[in-house]
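Protocol step 4 of 6: structure prediction from sequence.
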Amino acid sequence: MRLNFTIKCFLLFCLTSFAFFNSDLKAAQLSGSYTIDSTQVASSTNFKNLNSAITFLTSAGARSDGGPSNSAPFGISANTMFDFTGSITTHIEYVDIPAIPGVNDTTRVYIYGHGHTIQFNCSAANYFLLRLTGASYLNIDSLNLKTTNTQYGWGIQLRSNSNYNNFTNCIIDLTSISTISTGSAVGITFTNSTTSVTTTGANGAYNLFFNNTILGHPTTGGPYYAVTICPQTSSTTVSANKFINNTIQNFYYSGFYLTNTNGTLLRGNSISNPTRTSTTTIYPISVWNGSRSDTIVNNKIFTPFGAAGTSFSTVYGIAIYTPNTPTTNPCLVANNV
């Protein structure tokens, strides 16, 4: 009897120890530092692609890199950092980030791209490269996004109340977009639609875009819009998104398109078409539908027709359309050149 009891205890101890010490079985709420490195083994601390990191962060779903799944509770318990590392710097994928449990103003998720690129051949079945679907309190730095398709490619889409996110030092490469279409390609868009870049709704507020670059086709193509900000169904609701010191080069129709905005800041942005050879009427900044309390200052608009030679068209540098902004909540437009 004593021998049988001893064997049972020993087996129980072994199973308990294995579950405790094998860190790749599961990891509940995340905190601290993790890597995204496609050259290393997939584990609970390293992910071969960003999709696997997001899956592990938010669900018990199977990871595309074959690494271990997580278990509830999901999300984060403290500030959490994902660093792209490794010698392979181009990652073929598109990424949709859902709401992340545990985040708030002082507890955030940080994704450091270190110049790595998310690249995908976008299509009519999938327009976006990086989409936030209710994701908030997320910082993304130095992560580049590139479509290889000639017609489709949304660099960053915010929808479903994706709020308080920061995007810094990212490059959105749409240079392959040779086909001009109203909604199939855009650098950054606030829209709840999967096909229209000008659909209004509660898609994102209090987001910051700082020192990012949007590159369109160098001569004749798109994007039609570089940035569309349509954050609410009515401009009476504060949205307060900020675009500071960003660069937009080579768009077809509009650099910044704002509608139903309230409290938006456009400051110090550079908007130009330095190498375009085809022309049409362009609107580097256009404001629609009674937007209010927006601030448009210190932006630089230049070289609207680039390499078009003597074939010029009309430029409306900053256009504010009817219905006009209300006198009680006016927009400020100053010191733009």
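Step 5 (inspection) to follow. The first helix runs from residue 2 to 21.
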